[in-house]
Amino acid sequence: MEGMKSNPAPTLPAATKLASDEELKAKYGKVYRIGMTVSEDDETEIELVYRFKRPSVASYDRYVKTLAQIGASKASKRFMLDAVVEEDEARLTADAETYPGVAIAIGGKLTDILGLTNAVNLKKL
Q1: 45, 81, 113, 123: which has the fewest Cβ within 10 Å?
Q2: pLDDT in tens, 25-61
Q3: How many angstroms separate the CA atoms of 112 and 115, rounded?
């Protein structure tokens, strides 16, 4: 769209350095990058990008249990915070307070990493 504006990523204090993908791979092993565009209004979009380690099966089990007990929003928030790399955790927590739907969107992508997908076929033989 012609009238759309994109806000740059939030600026960090000079003392804060984002870890490189290679540093994160060395520390956590396999690292995933999840990015999304959040529309604040018809003219403003914000790009959000975070890095995650592979969620553990125990974390997924807690997610499913919490989902049944207290709901999708809180369960997804806990699940994504279990998997986010330490270097992005504070930024993700702050953004999730501003944009609560981020937790559900990210939680869905993290479950895809573990094999939970809608792309399953069933055929009668």
Answers
A1: 123
A2: 999 999 999 999 999 888 999 999 999 999 999 999 9
A3: 5
* SS3 label, residue 6: strand
Could you state, in order of their start, the residue ranges of all structural domains in the chain? 19-113
| N residues, the chain | 125
> Would you call 116 helix, strand, or coil by DSSP?
coil
pTM of the model: 0.77
**How many CA atoms are closer than 13 Å to the CA of 88, on its beta-carbon side?**
24
- The string over 55-82, giving b where at least 16 C-beta atoms fall within 10 Å of a residue's C-beta and e elsewhere, is beeebbebbeebbeeeeeeebbbbbbeb
